[in-house]
Amino acid sequence: MLEFEVTVSVDGNLFRNTVYTDLQSIRENITNLAALLNNNRTHSDTSFGGEGGEVANGYYHQVVKADIRGRVYISTHQQSDFGDSTNRKIAHEAKLHLVSEPAFVDRYINALEAACKHAEKSYFQDPESDLVIDGTFVLQCLEIDKEFDPELHTVL
């Protein structure tokens, strides 16, 4: 199992949460995003961790869509670890809608690929160690313009 921190920032607001996943899930995310950029897919849908109070380890879900004008639309749903409240478990949640460009997504993919290769190399050298992905992976986004319609570009 791999601990992975996800940070999404938009308009000065920051939501950071930790999720647990495996390296294969991260590689699938890379493959799906690359296929989207190469016009082989209409969207990419990826989740890390688990949603709901019974899981209690954090959750990250992203849906990425591209349009014919070269814009990339990203919707995220993040959930922190669940904590005890008076009579139930609660978690912080955020749903964010972002706009990016293919070049920014490509840079993000390259950074994730390099980190996965490094983690695998370290793991094969010492299989008893925890598999860790180090680094910060930034998907740069643009300011949402007046043309953005959440009904058209949001799938979450």
Task: Provide the fold topology.
Layout: E1 2-10, E2 13-21, H1 23-37, E3 43-49, E4 59-66, E5 72-79, E6 83-84, E7 89-90, E8 93-100, H2 102-125, H3 150-153
Antiparallel strand pairs: 1-2, 3-4, 4-5, 5-8, 6-7
Bin the strand percentage.
25-35%
State mean pLDDT (0 to 100 scale).
75
Net shape:
globular
Give me the secondary-structure category. alpha+beta
How far the N terminus sits from the C terminus, by CA atoms, comes to 26 Å
H/E topology pattern: EEHEEEEEEHH
Largest sheet: 4 strands, antiparallel
**Count of DSSP-assigned helices:** 3
Share of helix, binned: 25-40%
Q: Spans of 5+ residues with little confidence (pLDDT < 50)?
A: none
Explain this structure to me?
This protein is an alpha+beta fold and 156 residues long. Helix content is 28%, strand content 34%. The protein has helices at residues 23-37, 102-125, 150-153; strands at 2-10, 13-21, 43-49, 59-66, 72-79, 83-84, 89-90, 93-100. The strands form 3 sheets. It has a 4-stranded antiparallel sheet with strand order 3-4-5-8. Strands 1-2 form a two-stranded antiparallel sheet. Helix 1 (23-37) runs antiparallel to helix 2 (102-125). The chain is globular. The relative contact order is 0.18.
